[in-house]
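Field log, afternoon session.

UNIT: design team B
ACTIVITY: writing a sequence onto a fixed backbone
BACKBONE:
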């Protein structure tokens, strides 16, 4: 199924469904203490190459939710976050463990990306122009090279099924204003610096990460200028994590994300032709288990907690 054909979100008593994305389903709470607030549910869905697969990864939604909550705690002194509660007593029973109740923010239309290493779309831009988002980089960098210092490489928020597009800082300033753009940049780099150091202590490289920010709406619709960290944060779905002991620039790095699934889909074993326009086939049990184990390993190594 394409991203335009995501499975219908399940009905949840006491809520109204608002939106479904690649992984998350968003609801409005309609009853109780948190009426009017948002319920964000992480599913076990997985998407690659603009397709939501018909195979899910068991426990993925709960792993992502736990990891986000852990990271929000680690960053609390840097930036407030949107989570109001993940208390099982407040969260609807059918989504407990993989859902949070959060503030309904006015979101900034910017994907705030910090890169400490060169790979992915940043590597493609560098090879074409020697720059990433208008930032000139040294010559001779390879896939996986560590950058002289982390850089802010924002992107536009694409519609569902489309690709985010890397843009310059000036383009962000033109959209949200120079002052807000500078605050988004500085806070994104501060979060990356904190998270990169914590991950490195645990034997993991945080190559890059994507953050989203919003601001609280007042009762009259006015928007507080203070930035609030929203959505998920620093999970393998929004960040590239590599095992530090296996890092070797000049090649594709082993990772803690769905690269395992991408690699299988592109292999002869899958029998799938990316150019066909058809959805990838169902994942073999071994690929599902390997992917789940990588998400689980990232969670346990980073947090020190057992799942």
């Amino acid at each position: 199924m394409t991203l335009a054909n995501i499975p219908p979100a399940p009905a949840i008593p006491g809520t109204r469904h608002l939106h479904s994305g690649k992984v998350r389903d968003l609801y409005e709470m309609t009853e109780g203490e948190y009426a009017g607030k948002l319920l964000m549910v992480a599913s076990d869905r997985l998407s690659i190459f603009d397709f939501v697969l018909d195979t899910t990864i068991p426990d993925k939604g709960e792993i992502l939710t736990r990891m986000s909550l852990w990271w929000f705690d680690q960053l609390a002194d840097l930036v407030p976050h949107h989570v109001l509660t993940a208390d099982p007593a407040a969260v609807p029973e059918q989504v407990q463990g993989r859902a949070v109740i959060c503030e309904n923010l006015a979101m900034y239309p910017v994907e705030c990306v910090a890169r400490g290493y060169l790979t992915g779309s940043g590597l493609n831009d560098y090879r074409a122009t020697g720059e990433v988002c208008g930032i000139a980089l040294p010559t001779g960098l390879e896939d996986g090279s560590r950058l002289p210092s982390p850089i802010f490489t924002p992107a536009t928020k694409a519609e569902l099924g489309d690709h985010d597009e890397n843009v310059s800082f000036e383009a962000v300033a033109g959209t949200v204003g120079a002052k807000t753009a500078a605050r988004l940049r500085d806070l994104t780099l501060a979060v990356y610096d904190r998270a990169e150091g914590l991950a490195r202590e645990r034997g993991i490289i945080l190559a890059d990460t994507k953050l989203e920010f919003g601001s609280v709406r007042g009762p009259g619709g006015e928007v507080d200028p203070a930035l609030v960290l929203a959505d998920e944060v620093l999970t393998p779905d929004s960040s590239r994590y590599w095992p530090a002991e296996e890092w070797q620039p000049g090649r594709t790095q082993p990772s803690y994300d769905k690269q395992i699934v991408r690699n299988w889909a592109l292999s002869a074993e899958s029998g799938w032709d990316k150019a066909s326009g058809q959805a990838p086939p169902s994942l073999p049990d071994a690929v599902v288990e390997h992917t789940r184990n990588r998400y689980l390993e990232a969670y346990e190594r980073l947090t020190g907690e057992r799942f």
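LOG NOTE: The chain has six helices and 16 strands.
NEXT ACTIVITY: expression trials, pending approval
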